[in-house]
Amino acid sequence: MNTPRRKPFVGGREARDAERVGAMPIRSTSFVSMLVRANAVRRHGLPVVDYFLWNDDFEYSTRLLRDADGVFVPSSVVLHKTAKFGSTDADPGPRFYWEVRNKVWMLRASRSLRPAEKLLYGGSSLLRWARTVASSSDRSALRDAAVKGWHDGWRTAPRPNAEALGDQPATAALVADLERR
User: Fold this and answer.
1) Long-range contacts of residues 48-53, Cβ cutoff 8 Å, at least 24 apart
2) pTM higher than 0.70 for the full model?
3) What is the four-CA torsion angle of 17, 19, 25, 30, rounded to 10 degrees?
4) At the N or C end, where does the chain have fewer CB atoms within 10 A?
5) Contact 96, 146 (CB under 8 A)
């Protein structure tokens, strides 16, 4: 769970540099144990609030790593307590809405992935969604969530963080200031 996958299309230098230090090149990662340089946050901004719950870490890490190297260090171990240990294709129930909506947002509007990567990750997502629905104990709930998520993913977009946090003036001002830097 939360283990990054090897970066597709990785170059020889990047692969050798990562292997030399016992690491693996990655294109995305989970927020669980993610370390990010402060200058990368200043350059790329904060995670998009409206992605919260599903694909927030995928969108953010791919945005940070679009033109940068990232590594997974298998010798770094983190205890991540969850109610149920599982994979990303475990039966999510109605929460599947956010997986579909947010992935459509990302593939449609985010600049975190290049066009070829959007095809790769989009195809992979469609296959995983089909497996998730097929193995669900409540397929109708997942189908309903997927249809609504697909619809909303094409007809809406994530709000700017300052707008999403607008009812919390101090937080919104801090986010706006960080994103201007």
Assistant:
1) 48/158, 48/161, 49/158, 49/159, 49/161, 49/164, 49/165, 50/158, 50/159, 50/164, 51/102, 51/105, 51/106, 51/158, 53/95, 53/98, 53/102
2) yes
3) -130
4) C
5) yes
**Per-position DSSP letters for 12-59, written without gaps between them:** HHHHHHHHHTT-EEBS---STT----HHHHHHH-SPPGGGTTTTHHHH
- Cα 135 → chain centroid: 23
Q: For 102-153, what is each residue's pLDDT tens digit?
A: 999 999 999 999 999 999 999 999 999 999 999 999 999 999 999 999 999 9
Q: Are 157 and 105 in contact (CB under 8 A)?
A: yes
